[in-house]
Amino acid sequence: MDAPELLRRYCINDPRLAEHHDLSPTMQLDWRTTTLMRIAALIAVSAPEASMRTAVDDAIVAGVSSDEIIAVLDDLVRIVGLPRAVAEAPRIALALGYADDLGIGEGD
């Protein structure tokens, strides 16, 4: 299915979208980009710590650096606001292994 057809199906809430996501990977995005997008989405929705850890681990495996992950958080301030970014920073720090260096504990 091409991109315009996929968009059309989203516009009409086509029930076949569930099948699409069960059967095929992301259409055009490479894995590295996908992992960065997942981190951004998790920041935006204030996802649980376990979800952030998984997303950060996947990103590191995909070749994303810690600096790039932190840059995603910093860039999202314009979209999600500083309070959300501040709230999510400890989850990212824990996932990156910076918790001890930054004095952050579980659940901070």
From TrEMBL:
Entry-linked InterPro entries: AhpD-like (IPR029032)
Gene3D superfamilies from the UniProt entry: AhpD-like
UniProt name for this protein: Uncharacterized protein
Annotated GO MF terms: peroxiredoxin activity
Organism: Microbacterium trichothecenolyticum
